[in-house]
C-alpha cells in the first residue's frame, strides 16, 4: 500500500506535532470563564473538527446559549489564547519520526501535502521549520467543510495534481480517517486501533514506518 503511493497527505495535529494539548488548554480556559468544566474526555469530541463546530460542542457540554455575535467573540478569544501557546513552538516538538519520514518520502519522489482543519497550519509549519518539506498546504483557510467531509483531502490531491486513489492519508482522528476513505484514498491511522477501525493500517507513530 505504501510502496505504490504517489502522494502522501498528512493531518497536522497528532500526526506531525501535538498541538492538540494547546487547543485543549485554550478551550478549557474559555469554559472556565463561562462557568463550567471542560474535561479531556469532552475534548475527545473536538478531534478533527472545525473551530466553529468545536465551539458548538463546547457550548453544548456547558449548556450555554449564545448569540452568533457572542460565538464569534468566543472563538476569537480562544484562538488568541491558542496562538499565544503555539508561538512558543520550536522544532523539538515535532513528533518522533515525523520529520525523518517526510524527508524519506521526498527522497523517494513522493509528493507531500498537508490536509488540516487548522487555520494556523502554515504558521505552525514555519515554527517547526518544516514548511519546505510540503508541496502543498490545504488548511482551514482554503476549505469550508469539516472532516468527515472529504473536501480537504480532495483539495490536497488536486493541489498535488494526483488522483486521490494514488494518495495515502495519515490521520489520528476518527473523522479524519472517514474523510480520507470518503476521498477514495488509503488511510494510515495513527493512534488506537479500537478508535481508528476504518483505517487500512494503524500505527503508533510515523517512526514505525522508518523501519520498513
Automatic annotation (TrEMBL):
SUPFAM superfamilies membership: HAD-like (SSF56784)
Site (Important for catalytic activity and assists the phosphoryl transfer reaction to Asp8 by balancing charge and orienting the reacting groups): 116, 147
Note describing how the cofactor binds: Binds 2 magnesium ions per subunit.
Keywords: Carbohydrate metabolism, Isomerase, Magnesium, Metal-binding, Phosphoprotein
EC numbers: 5.4.2.6
Residues the entry annotates as binding substrate: 11-13, 27, 46-51, 54, 78, 116-120, 147
Protein known as: Beta-phosphoglucomutase
Species of origin: Paenibacillus anaericanus
Organismal lineage: Bacteria, Bacillati, Bacillota, Bacilli, Bacillales
Amino acid at each position: 500500500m505504501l510502496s505504490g503511493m504517489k502522494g502522501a497527505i498528512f493531518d497536522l495535529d497528532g500526526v506531525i506535532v501535538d498541538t492538540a494539548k494547546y487547543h485543549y488548554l485554550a478551550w478549557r480556559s474559555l469554559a472556565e470563564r463561562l462557568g463550567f468544566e471542560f474535561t479531556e474526555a469532552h475534548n475527545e469530541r473536538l478531534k478533527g473538527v472545525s473551530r466553529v463546530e468545536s465551539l458548538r460542542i463546547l457550548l453544548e457540554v456547558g449548556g450555554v446559549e449564545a448569540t452568533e455575535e457572542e460565538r464569534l467573540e468566543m472563538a476569537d478569544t480562544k484562538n488568541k489564547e491558542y496562538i499565544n501557546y503555539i508561538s512558543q513552538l520550536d522544532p523539538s516538538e515535532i513528533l518522533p519520526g515525523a520529520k525523518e519520514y517526510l524527508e524519506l518520502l521526498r527522497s523517494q519522489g513522493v509528493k507531500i501535502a498537508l490536509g488540516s482543519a487548522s487555520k494556523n497550519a502554515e504558521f505552525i509549519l514555519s515554527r517547526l521549520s518544516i514548511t519546505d518539506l510540503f508541496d502543498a498546504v490545504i488548511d482551514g483557510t482554503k476549505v469550508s467543510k469539516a472532516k468527515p467531509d472529504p473536501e480537504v483531502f480532495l483539495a490536497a490531491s488536486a493541489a498535488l495534481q494526483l488522483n486521490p486513489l494514488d494518495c495515502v492519508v495519515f490521520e489520528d482522528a476518527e473523522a479524519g480517517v472517514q474523510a480520507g476513505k470518503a476521498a477514495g484514498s488509503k488511510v494510515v491511522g495513527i493512534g488506537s486501533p479500537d478508535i481508528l477501525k476504518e483505517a487500512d493500517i494503524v500505527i503508533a507513530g510515523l517512526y514505525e514506518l522508518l523501519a520498513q
